[in-house]
């Protein structure tokens, strides 16, 4: 989730049109498109496999302090607590931040190629491994916490998380599990125009369950097999219907920036950020805020910063800010963290591939898309779709992505193009065996039901 930082206040919004204009300002020509990758992992103590708290020796703050000292990152402080780090631009840019249950997230820099993404992931993994070795902690790449109950999971000292924690149980039975016990890989990509945005949004919404199936990696929770291949995706289905899902309106005539604004205005708010603190506005209407009708902020109208904050608290499978965020993949190891961006870059950053992907999803109904998302958590690639399985769609989509990456022709120093980063997902699609299937096999076989083995086997 985004980390708000203090800075100059933006001017109040004078009209609804400014909200759409803010989104539209994200349009860029293709030669300026970049790749942003965000990935989370669970920290744990090596000696007893307990989750690491915020305070204390080997705690989350200790990790952040060490990253500041060793790598020159700049701390972001809220209420006296370090809650994030800013990575200098000359080191690639981006931030290291905290999710509600202490999941450590890298929100990477704006990079031009997947080769740069691979280098960024490798550098971050090296840094957390080095610090973890010295502090006696490890980091786990899975989509859901495999052992700890919600009660055993630590709580991070960020104001917005307190507001969300109070509100989540009112709107969905698994929202707190999403916050405190799930982890993801997210890919952020650009669009050239409103029409380009609409095409990319439709393709990514339709194929997001396919990406979720390929990345399925959360069949364990509280020490047991939970009956799902991606329990993280199941948790999202029961989080908050007002702000999650596949956005069926995006496939209707008239879709554009203004239509997304209308949707976002109807999503209840969480908060407003004022003078370094979060004001609880959970359930309030941003439309009322626009009219100065919030009793908590009487007569006050929102700024563009408030709008940017509000948009960041909407959680559909693909989210629009000034770019598109693909949000449906379970966290995994280093290779999966690179492969998920490769899937989306191959589909969306080559015009021919985007045409082919549009053709692939053409004619899929809202009911079919909904049923696919419903079935993916339990069945992943084995989920039925039309006259076949989701695995069939995955192979077609990967073939399109491979051709798209080949046409991009971005080469590394060894003369290799970006198609090399699809190989792991292609193997999963070809064999039908996901990371979740391997975990279930190991848990029931060699591990003899001992979930503690996962902490060595799936370390990030």
Q: Could you write a compact summary of the structure shown?
A:
With 460 residues, the protein is α+β, with helices and mostly antiparallel strands. Helix content is 42%, strand content 15%.
Structural overview:
The protein has 460 residues and is an alpha+beta fold. It is 42% helix and 15% strand. It is built from 17 helices and 15 strands. Strands 1, 2, 3, 4, 5, 6, 7, 12 and 13 form a 9-stranded antiparallel sheet that branches. A two-stranded antiparallel sheet has the order 8-9. A two-stranded antiparallel sheet has the order 10-11. A hairpin with a 2-residue loop joins strand 8 and strand 9. Helix 6 (194-214) packs across helix 12 (351-361) and helix 6 packs across helix 14 (390-408). The longest helix has 22 residues, at 114-135. The chain is globular, with a radius of gyration of 21 Å.
Q: Quick one: overall form?
A: globular
Mean pLDDT: 96
Fraction of helical residues = 40-55%
Estimated share of beta-strand residues: 5-15%
Q: Span from first to last CA? A: 20 Å
The number of helical runs is 17
Structural class: alpha+beta
Stretches where pLDDT falls below 50 for ≥5 residues?
Answer: none
Write down the Rg: 21 Å
* Largest β-sheet summary: 9 strands, antiparallel
> How many E strands?
15
């Amino acid at each position: 989730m985004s980390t708000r930082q203090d800075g100059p206040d933006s001017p109040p919004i004078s009209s609804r049109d400014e909200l759409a204009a803010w989104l539209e300002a994200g349009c860029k020509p293709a030669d300026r498109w970049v790749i942003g990758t965000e990935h989370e992992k669970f920290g744990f103590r090596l000696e007893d496999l307990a989750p690491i708290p915020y305070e204390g020796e080997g705690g989350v703050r200790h990790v952040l302090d060490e990253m500041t000292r060793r790598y020159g990152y700049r701390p972001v402080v809220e209420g006296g607590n370090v809650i994030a780090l800013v990575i200098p631009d000359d080191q690639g840019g981006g931030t290291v931040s905290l999710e509600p249950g202490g999941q450590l997230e890298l929100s990477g820099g704006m990079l031009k190629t997947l080769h740069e993404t691979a280098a960024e992931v490798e550098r971050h993994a090296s840094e957390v491994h080095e610090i973890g070795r010295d502090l006696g902690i490890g980091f786990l790449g899975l989509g859901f916490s495999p052992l700890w109950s919600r009660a055993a999971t630590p709580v991070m000292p960020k104001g917005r998380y307190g507001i969300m924690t109070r509100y989540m149980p009112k709107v969905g039975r698994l929202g707190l599990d999403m916050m405190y016990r799930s982890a993801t890989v997210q890919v952020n990509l650009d669009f050239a125009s409103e029409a380009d945005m609409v095409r990319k949004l439709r393709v990514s919404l339709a194929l997001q369950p396919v990406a979720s199936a390929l990345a399925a990696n959360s069949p364990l929770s509280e020490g047991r097999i939970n009956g799902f291949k991606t329990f993280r995706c199941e948790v999202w289905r029961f989080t908050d219907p007002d702000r999650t899902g596949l956005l069926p309106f995006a496939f209707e005539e008239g879709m554009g920036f203004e239509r997304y604004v209308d949707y976002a205005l109807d999503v209840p708010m969480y908060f407003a950020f004022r003078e370094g603190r979060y004001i609880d506005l959970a359930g309030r209407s941003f439309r009322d805020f626009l009219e100065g009708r919030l009793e908590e902020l009487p007569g006050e109208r929102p700024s563009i910063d408030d709008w940017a904050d509000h948009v960041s608290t909407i959680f559909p499978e693909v989210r629009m800010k000034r770019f598109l965020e693909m949000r449906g993949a379970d966290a995994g190891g280093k290779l999966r963290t690179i492969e998920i961006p490769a899937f989306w870059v191959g589909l969306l950053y080559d015009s021919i591939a985007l045409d082919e992907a549009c053709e692939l999803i053409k004619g899929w109904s809202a009911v079919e898309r909904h049923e696919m998302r419903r079935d993916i958590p339990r069945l992943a690639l084995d989920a039925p779709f039309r006259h076949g399985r989701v695995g069939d769609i995955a192979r077609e989509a990967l073939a399109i992505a491979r051709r798209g990456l080949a046409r991009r022709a971005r080469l590394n120093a060894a003369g290799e193009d970006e198609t090399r980063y699809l190989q792991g997902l292609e193997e999963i699609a070809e064999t039908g065996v996901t990371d979740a299937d391997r975990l279930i096999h190991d848990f029931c076989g060699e591990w003899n039901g001992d979930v503690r083995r996962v902490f060595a086997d799936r370390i990030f």
